[in-house]
Design brief:
The protein is of the alpha/beta class. The protein folds into 2 domains: 4-86 and 190-247, HAD superfamily/HAD-like (Rossmann fold); 89-186, Eukaryotic phosphomannomutase, cap domain (Hypothetical Protein, Haloacid Dehalogenase-like Hydrolase, Chain: A, domain 2, 2-Layer Sandwich), CATH 3.30.1240.20. The protein has helices at residues 26-36, 50-56, 62-65, 89-93, 95-110, 140-153, 155-166, 193-201, 221-224, 237-247; strands at 7-11, 41-45, 68-70, 76-79, 82-86, 122-124, 129-131, 172-177, 181-186, 206-211, 230-233. The strands form 2 sheets. It has a 7-stranded mixed sheet with strand order 5-4-3-2-1-10-11. Helix 1 runs parallel beside helix 10 (237-247). The longest helix has 16 residues, at 95-110. The two termini are 13 Å apart. It comes from Drosophila mojavensis. Its cofactor is Mg(2+). The active site is at 12 (nucleophile), 14 (proton donor/acceptor). Belongs to the eukaryotic PMM family.
Length: 250
């Protein structure tokens, strides 16, 4: 029988532990902490920062409940509730390159016509920039409206194609996650980055990853296909629960 220390389960947040930008349901939380955690080491790896993880997963108790927390694709590393490492995109790219990129993005967005626009179009995180054509200060209804509009008009994917062309000389990766934005980060700074920390300090017999954006261009794609682990495609927390129940014989 496997010990808890043999198996690591890594989870995306949006669409995996919660519905998009929603709070985790109490019954799922109880299932994760009382049924899953006793049988396996558990961790989360998300594109968002730690504060947004707190918002979706009921606050700072996640520092106690999860063995690993990897905000910002693992560019911030938290183990046993304490930050143990951090990388920084500003130092990596340099101010001149950053300003060139930001100026282009702001010009592009200023000329982009959408049904609505709100505020906060570029959000800086330690390991990435998050670009949001509609603006992150939109309501849930506006968020859902843009998601449907983007599905039809490919606003984000078109913008990414332009950025790839304009900044072909810079080693950047573009990843669509969630409903309204996309992430930009140096090559290799995707969710597989968290595996560097895990491999350096731990030796699990099995690693499993659960995520919903597993298609090429999605922010779970690189870690989902990584040969060092077993990837599980889910669409809702119910899918996650079903696969965990089968995997751990719950």
């Amino acid at each position: 029988m496997s010990k808890r220390e043999d198996i690591l389960l890594l989870f995306d947040v949006d669409g995996t532990l919660t519905m998009p930008r929603s709070v985790v349901q109490p019954e799922f939380e109880e299932f994760l902490y009382t049924k899953v955690k006793p049988k396996a080491t558990i961790g989360i790896v998300g594109g968002s920062d730690l504060e947004k993880m707190f918002e979706q997963l009921n606050g700072q108790k996640i520092l106690k409940e999860f063995d690993f927390i990897f905000p910002e694709n693992g560019l911030v590393q938290i183990e046993a509730g304490k930050e143990v490492g951090k990388q920084n995109i500003i130092q990596h790219l340099g101010e001149k390159t950053l300003q060139r990129f930001i100026n282009y993005v702001l010009r592009y967005l200023s000329e982009l016509e959408l049904p609505i626009k709100r505020g906060t179009f570029i959000e800086f995180r330690n390991g990435m920039m998050n670009i949001c054509p509609i603006g992150r200060q939109c309501t849930r209804e506006e968020r859902n409206m843009f998601a449907a509009y983007d599905e039809e008009h490919k606003v984000r994917s078109t913008m990414i194609a332009k950025l790839k062309e304009e900044f072909a000389d810079i080693d950047l990766t573009y990843s669509i996650g969630g409903q309204i934005s996309f992430d930009v980060f140096p090559h290799g700074w995707d969710k597989t980055f968290c595996l560097r920390h895990i491999e350096a300090y731990h030796n699990f017999k099995e690693i499993h990853f659960f995520g919903d954006k597993t298609e090429p261009g999605g922010n779970d794609y690189e870690i989902y296909i990584d040969p060092r682990l077993k990837g599980h495609k889910v669409n809702t927390p119910n899918d996650t629960k079903r696969i965990l129940t089968e995997l751990l014989n719950l």
